[in-house]
Design brief:
By secondary structure, the chain is of the alpha+beta class. The protein is about 60% helix and about 10% strand. Helix 14 crosses helix 17.
């Protein structure tokens, strides 16, 4: 187990190391040359150097046994440094996952110790040219090699695409079809018949190595079949989705914040029309405050889900999907807004935000695209809606109302409005059989993610007010700032769920003219509209916190610029 002190030390070592070895100019040059800094990655993974990988490996195999929460904090910091290098480290973690989850004790000892003792790099080989989001359609095969009626090994044939660390890993976990179904194998680099292509020329994360793999009659001994039983591959992959998606969520969060943290100081120095940009409400309230709000909603979901996974609540795949969806979409929007915030400078390489924007783009694609996240979220919560006869989100809303009774200022009342509206939208969709439209199913996924995130951020703000946040939690914002962020997000979520829910359900023919008035009432539209009051002053407050100025100064600026 890692103590808070050790975690802080690890975060600091990572930060100090990056400042020394990966300063901005070095990152810009490597990005320009499209080069993965292999020595830096190896140094970071070496047990006698930085040893970041030790955090991911269980203690019994020589690692530090970091919790999900620890790994989230490290992944966020890695993304703040460079998402390409972060991806390289993440690939080892992801590549060793099928082993951590499904291997026999002997296999775990053998392969996980290689990470802990030798700093071995892994790659995770699942995707194929024709099997991306739909992994079940993979074509790579692993045929049994028999001797005296016993399976002694397998011959692997096929190819893999877009594999991180594909050209630099020491060990590969490869998903292939055995006669009993998809299964994971460990393949060592350099074995006969196993080759990799040249690195892909990518839009972003150009400091990571991504390559296609080819398997031409590659022989592996039977003990390379992870878990020793064929056909467990997809189950083993799914068993860690909640966890691995949280890591990519943390990447979106770290990259989004790293872009904003360049835009924020820039805006205090850039004078236009006689005053710094940071004092212009039309600038901060469009390019900064909404993005900070979304990122912190994503963080709330990541932290709560990490705590629940660490408490043994299972793999929480849907919660991992919500965290990934919200944080990576927020990270992309924040990086894009940061380019705008820097104007022409933002559009050049030198100021880094355009690189961050290209880098963070991958987070809504790998480990499950945003559309697959929407589908995952929607399908799971649809079942809850049916099982509870439409009451699930009404019940969640009542929990929010109870929280509001204790903490009037954390936006729980607004989250409750979003959840009641969501229950109504889902019920209308059920009655009119609207999930036969895939677009409606996926849009419901988005609305669910917003409503649940509003609840989560309200809970986080309340815990902060009670001084009960996890001691390892990110503490950038204090309780009043978190409450303001939760109110801003709660208002947005309630309006989005009610109005977009109405739009989609009506658009799909689910509401007749005669039903419309009752539906609008059910959605609570008047209350949702009234809840928007106070939005601008909350945004002012968040901007004040961001620029460490008093509310009075902002008020003066608003009056002057009006
Ligand atoms: C830089 C990089 C690194 C990567 N690293 C790895 C790695 O280390 N290991 C690994 O195994 N893979 C890796 N991947 C692969 C990545 O996980 C896949 O690219 C991703 O899962 C999407 O698959 P695809 O590219 O085949 O797109 P597709 O699945 O073809 O999707 C294309 C588009 O269609 C949408 N779509 C797909 N299915 C549906 C549907 N049923 N309904 C509606 N819309 C749908 C998607 O959301 C997407 O917008 C990496 C990819 C990249 C680019």
């Amino acid at each position: 187990m890692i103590t808070n002190k050790t975690l802080k030390l690890s975060l600091k070592s990572l930060h100090d190391f990056a400042k020394k070895r990966l300063p901005d100019q070095e990152l810009i040059d490597l990005d320009e040359r499209d080069e993965c800094p292999i020595e830096v990655v190896k140094y970071m993974c070496s047990p006698d150097k930085l040893g970041i990988q030790l955090l991911f490996v269980p203690e019994e195999y020589g690692g530090m046994g970091g919790s999900t929460f620890d790994v989230y904090r490290i992944c966020e910091e890695m993304a703040r440094i460079d998402l390409g290098v972060g991806t390289s480290l993440f690939a080892t973690f992801l590549g060793s996952d099928p082993i951590t989850v499904g291997a026999t004790p002997e296999q775990k000892k053998k392969w996980l110790s290689r990470i802990a003792e030798d700093g071995a790099l892994f790659a995770y080989g699942a995707t194929e040219p024709e099997a991306g989001s739909d992994l079940g359609s993979l074509k790579t095969t692993a045929d049994r090699v028999m001797q005296d009626g016993k399976v002694v090994g397998y011959k692997i044939n096929g190819s893999k695409q877009w594999i991180s660390n594909g050209g630099i890993a020491d060990l590969y976990t490869v998903l292939a079809n055995t006669p009993s179904g998809p299964s994971w194998f460990v393949v060592e680099k350099g074995v006969p018949g196993f080759t990799h292509d040249k690195p892909e020329n990518k839009h972003g994360i150009r400091l990571s190595n991504t390559a296609a793999l080819a398997f031409n009659n590659v022989y592996v001994d039977a003990d390379r079949l992870i878990g020793g039983v064929e056909g467990q591959g997809l189950l083993q992959a799914q068993a860690v989705f909640g966890y691995t998606r949280l890591m990519v969520a943390a990447f979106g969060l770290g990259a989004g914040w790293s872009a904003l943290d360049r835009a924020i100081p820039y805006s205090t120095k850039r004078i236009q029309a006689g005053s710094p940009l940071s004092e212009k409400q039309g600038y901060t309230h469009k390019l900064m405050v909404p993005h900070i709000t979304h990122l912190e909603a994503g963080r709330a979901f990541i932290e709560e889900t990490a705590e629940r996974i660490d408490a043994g609540e299972g793999s929480l795949n849907t919660e991992g999907a919500i965290a990934k969806y919200m944080s990576t979409e927020a990270g992309n929007a924040a990086a894009e807004a940061s380019i705008q915030a820097l104007g022409g400078y933002g559009y050049t390489h030198e100021y880094m935000v355009e690189k961050i924007s290209r880098d963070v783009r991958i987070t809504t694609i790998y480990e499950g695209t945003s559309e697959i996240m929407e589908m995952t979220i929607s399908r799971d919560r649809w079942q809850l809606h049916l099982k509870t006869r439409g009451q699930h989100y009404h019940e969640q809303a009542r929990l929010m109302e109870a929280l509001h009774a204790q903490h009037k200022d954390v936006g729980a009342d607004m989250a409750a409005l979003a959840m009641h509206a969501l229950a109504e939208v889902m019920e209308k969709a059920r009655v009119a059989h609207l999930t036969r439209f895939q677009h409606i199913l996926l849009r419901l996924g988005e609305l669910i993610a917003y409503a649940e995130s509003a609840g989560c951020l309200a809970r986080r703000a309340a815990r902060s007010a009670e001084n009960r946040l996890n001691e390892k939690a990110h503490m950038r914002f204090d309780a009043p700032a978190l409450a303001a962020l939760a109110r801003i997000f709660g208002r947005e979520a309630s309006l989005k769920v009610a109005e977009e829910g109405l739009r989609w359900v009506t658009g799909a023919g689910g509401v007749s003219d005669s039903e419309m008035a009752a539906f609008e009432t059910g959605l609570g539209l008047p209350a949702v509209h009234r809840a928007q009051a106070g939005l601008i002053s909350d945004m002012d407050y968040v901007a004040d916190v961001l620029f460490a100025r008093t509310a009075k100064e902002t008020a003066k600026e608003v009056v002057l610029s009006a």
